[in-house]
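Box 3.1 — From sequence to structure: Lipoyl-binding domain-containing protein
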Amino acid sequence: MYKIKVNTSHTFDVTKESMEKLDVIETSTNKYHILQDNTTIKAEILNTDFNQKTYTIKVNNTAYDVDIYDALDQQIEALGFEIGASKQVNDVKAPMPGLILEINVNVGDEVKENDDLLILEAMKMENVLTSPREGVIKAIEVKQGETVDKNALLIEFE
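Predicted structure (token representation):
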């Protein structure tokens, strides 16, 4: 089952079976003719972001922003973790014990999400830890060459 959120305000549950019952014909690339309850609906996919599972769809000349949540997304949400940027991560902790090989940022640096922060060597593998969000580095709690335990505080954000 998928959870569909339209314009961040309306939520619908959709099953694979209900999708298979839809009377849909693709009339041209990203344009569809849908027949539901003897009513004709024209739909067009205007924009897609497959990785974020977001789409902009025009239905009868009105555009809608659509988010699709699969079973894993719903399970993550049920466990209390937020999806997207609404939850602020204020620090980076060591995911495993290891040795700090390199620190790529300084206090006061502005970083973007997925920027490289530091390299942690663990089990003879180099692990690049990236920024979980956009922000400013408030504190760096480790030094190059230092050994850290799992869950040790490495970097704090403002």
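Summary of the box: Residues 71-78 form the longest helix (8 residues).
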